[in-house]
Amino acid sequence: MPALRTIVYVSSATHKLNEAEMEALLMDAREHNQRHGITGILLYGEGNFMQCIEGLPDGVELIYARICASRQHRDVIKLMDEPTVERCFPDWYMGVAPASHSAQLQLSSAQWQRLSHEAGTTAPPGMQLLQRFWQKLAR
Question: Which runs of consecutive H residues, i.e. helices, occur in 54-124?
């Protein structure tokens, strides 16, 4: 099985997106992500984004470069950029969820380094938190 790559970042919207703008952003992202085999989740709330993208390294690099070049946001801060063996969001070309400012602060301040091997897990603590957040919203 080829190695996968995961990037998680936060950024600030250049303006608060209305529903139509958010829908257009998602449709565009899903089209490009599907074409390049990228899955993930986008959290948006109070003018801030947090996104996880995952897939084959070349596809992730291409999509992340596209994200960084977007004029819809600024102050992109990469929290995580790591190889991984499996996807956390395998069924979502781009899942989306509203996220309060406090939820985003909790997620963005999470430790994004790998847990020690003694802990018996391969996902970084921040990724585990992001996945749990998404699972609660998806219920």
Answer: 57-69, 101-108
